């Protein structure tokens, strides 16, 4: 007859086996997260091939008002920026573009004095104008730009101000329909875009949607992005679903940087 100790050990073994089985099944099916690509999540996986001739990185709004603790949106984006490692991951994308010579495009967001005279605004346009987000006094002057909320995060400046990075005209709402990003990409022979930046369900997602509509192949770097999280709404999680459903691929920064370096070595 088995002893109590034997029975307990047997039960423990059964529980351990069940835990391993559940863990294996969970790993076999996983939704995309900031840090991990999806696994058997029930959706197609088109994939994205990085090719030297026609692939570029596009970064939206790498600016102080989003990414600095002193920025006007930090109270709602700061935790997600920190959790995702967005600042560091964007720097890794800037650095790999600089190291390899991969084409890099920045699509910024600026509001000039005349933009504050708009007769109607959407919800977050109203908020951005009210808090002076991305404000510059004039389109033809950099007066007050250095160190302002509209300025680049300081650690990105060597990569953006290197004479090679293309800085487009500003987008005014969220997507590139109002700036020259698509023109600049076409003129550079780019048909594939690795997309990252701020803010996830606003400018970044809007850029993804328009670039896809314009015929570009787009992948999204999920931990080089962050969004606003409030008591009632989570902008980042909302965008993560849409990134997965619309883009050709979603992946983290480490895997993306590795793939870029491999493509440029090849």
UniProtKB/TrEMBL annotation:
Q: Does the keyword Glycoprotein apply?
A: no
What InterPro entries does the entry give? Isochorismatase-like_dom, Isochorismatase-like_hydrls, Isochorismatase-like_sf
Tell me which Pfam families the record gives. Isochorismatase
Signal peptide from the UniProt entry: 1-24
Taxonomic superkingdom: Bacteria
Species: Aquisalinus luteolus
Annotated keywords: Hydrolase, Signal
Spell out the protein name for this chain: Cysteine hydrolase
Query: Care to name a GO molecular-function term for this sequence?
Result: hydrolase activity
Q: Which residues form the Isochorismatase-like domain?
A: 55-244
Q: What is the lineage of its organism?
A: Bacteria, Pseudomonadati, Pseudomonadota, Alphaproteobacteria, Parvularculales
